[in-house]
Amino acid sequence: LESFIMFFNFFQERVENYSNVSIHLKNPENCSCQACGLHRHCKYSVHLSGKLYNTRTMETDDFMSHDKQVFTVGRICAERTRIYHKLKHFKFKLYQECCSIAKTEEVEDEQVKETVERIFSQSKDSGWIKENSSCDLRVKKHLVPI
């Protein structure tokens, strides 16, 4: 994954650490792309924000949760950033979606195992699992908007 992307270490680290990304067209300028450092016709701004999280436990960290960073990048780096971010944070976004479903489907006095089985069955029957278990970037646009 990382071998096809030529990013500055600092930029790549930022993309990996911020759970939300949005990419916007901006007034074009000829400058150094802040993602790769090459002189480009930069017409995109990459906005990074969101909470840090533990990639193993998925627990979020509220430290500097309102911090945002903006980078000016060229067309190729904007697209690579979108793809890299989506792949890097896929598991976390899917976990958040599952937690959201579990909270809305919560039934009082139901055991955890029963809740998991019921929600899994409903999600499977509705096609949600099949729709959301792929990391196909053409299909999964709703999990990580740009």
UniProtKB/TrEMBL annotation:
User: Which residues belong to any copy of the DUF4211 domain?
Assistant: 11-58
Which InterPro entries does the entry link to?
DUF4211
Q: What are the annotated GO cellular component locations?
A: nucleus
Q: List the coiled-coil residues.
A: none
Name of the protein described by the UniProt record? Coiled-coil domain-containing protein 82
Q: Organism, per UniProt? A: Mustela putorius furo (European domestic ferret)
